[in-house]
Amino acid sequence: MPHISRKKTPFPIAPILREYLEKYGREIRLPIEYKDLLRYESEVILYDKFKQDTLWVSLQYPQSDIDFLYEGLKQIYAIMMSDGDLSVMDHLYVDRIDLCLYGNTRPFRIRIRNRINDNYDYYYIKNADASRVVGLELEHILSPNRIGYLVYNQTLVEEHIAGIPGEEFIRNYIEKDRVENKLRLAKEFVKFNERCFVRLLGDMHSSNFVIDITPDFEDVHYRIRAIDFDQQCYEPRRSIYFPKYYRQNMPFIKIGIQNITPETSRQYQKEERSMIVGRIRYSHEELGDLLAAMKGSILSKEVYIMELRKELSEYYDDSGYLRCKNMGEIVEHGLTNLANRHF
């Protein structure tokens, strides 16, 4: 089973990556930064509907800071959701600010509520880390999912990705035999596994992805979406970038073994790689700029890069990986080979 370093080394956003973010509209001045939210004075443990500790706490702020914080947080939501149209803020208010107590990033979760219909939405504020930003951008370009996020100085704002958390899906759907189409779920996990490995997104165990269920006129479709990009292009071992090797994901693996053959699995892998090649073609300029930014950024430790390129060279029987000097070059080499083999 893969082992993940529990304390990941964060890397600052390099100037060339900052230029990329500015060019494509990801870098924008924000009224609130991550450090502003650290000035809370008390916290309350949050429990789920089963009275279990969620490892999130709800924060209380000094009265003198509330107006500034809440107004700024509403403005950020307007920037994210309506390109800065502040008229959408009239009926919105900040319902809650939560802090996650586990993991490397300690993100803040902002809940925005509508006074008219009581509907609510979330978004997240985190410390901006180069690996995490690159992960979000690769997800936006190379996956079937679009990602909304913004960066300002050392602050990263991410939209909420809706879906059923993987571990909850296991408990309430797989273990209770409530999966309506196991073949489609197995196919999606194979394709998700392929997407993660091709672009080197690690740590995709069941706590770090969600299941989006879309009803069809006769059946349902499943989409597995990553929600944590902390381990993008960071870890040294090839197995870490395969969701199929995580013990937490075994229920998905068992469904695959029971419902598809190895030949069918390989066909699904080829389908997903073909789709990735199509996305490379359609986003050629943007991806080229991103890869250039990645090659000019520090995304991992030197010893990790040396180990990963050796493992990938042996896996693909391709000595070209041994000439890669950084994580950006490793990803670029893999994507170039993928596109060349397809054509």
Q: Can you walk me through this structure?
A:
The protein is globular and about 60 Å long. The protein starts with 14 loop residues before the first helix and ends with a helix. The strands form 2 sheets. The chain has a 7-stranded antiparallel β-sheet. A 3-stranded antiparallel β-sheet has the order 8-9-10. It is built from 10 helices and 10 strands. It has 2 domains: 31-127, no CATH class; 164-342, Phosphatidylinositol 3-kinase Catalytic Subunit, Chain A, Domain 5 (Orthogonal Bundle), CATH 1.10.1070. Helix 5 crosses helix 7. The mean pLDDT is 93. The protein is α+β, with helices and mostly antiparallel strands. It has helices at residues 15-23, 63-82, 130-142, 166-174, 182-199, 250-259, 262-282, 284-295, 302-316, 327-342; strands at 42-47, 53-60, 92-100, 108-114, 120-127, 149-152, 155-159, 164-165, 209-215, 220-226.
How would you summarize what this structure contains?
The protein has about 350 residues and is α+β, with helices and mostly antiparallel strands. It contains 10 helices and 10 strands.
